Amino acid sequence: MSKRIVKGFLVVASTLSFLNGVLIGIHLMFYPNVGSEGWKSMLFYFGYGLWSQYIALNSFNEQGDQEENN
User: Fold this and answer.
1) What DSSP string describes 9-62?
2) Could you tell me if 17 and 44 are in contact, meaning their C-beta atoms sit under 8 angstroms apart?
3) Where do transmembrane segments lie in this chain (predicted)?
4) Contact assessment for residue 31 and residue 63, using Cβ atoms and an 8 Å cutoff
């Protein structure tokens, strides 16, 4: 049960960070004079989204747990 809660939290966190990275990227397309801070934020949120999605998919893989139990 706790694995499902943590996996759900990580999936939601990765989705929100991906959307935040997209919004920052769109903002930088229309307002490119923001500077390097916007690019750093965008890379951070994309990186965090990918990292948390990787953890959610590989650490909390229910199929792998079922195969180990059999």
Assistant:
1) HHHHHHHHHHHHHHHHHHHHHH-GGG-HHHHHHHHHHHHHHHHHHHHHHHHT-H
2) no
3) 9-30, 42-60
4) no
15-60 residue pLDDT tens = 887 787 777 777 777 776 666 666 777 777 777 777 777 777 777 7
Q: Which two tokens stand for residue 49?
A: 């989204």
Residues contacting residue 43 through CB under 8 Å, at least 6 positions apart:
21
| pTM higher than 0.85 | no
31 phi and psi, to 5 degrees? -130, 75
Per-residue CA distances from 41 to 4, 31, 64 (Å): 29, 15, 34
Distance, CA of 28 to CA of 37 (rounded, Å): 10
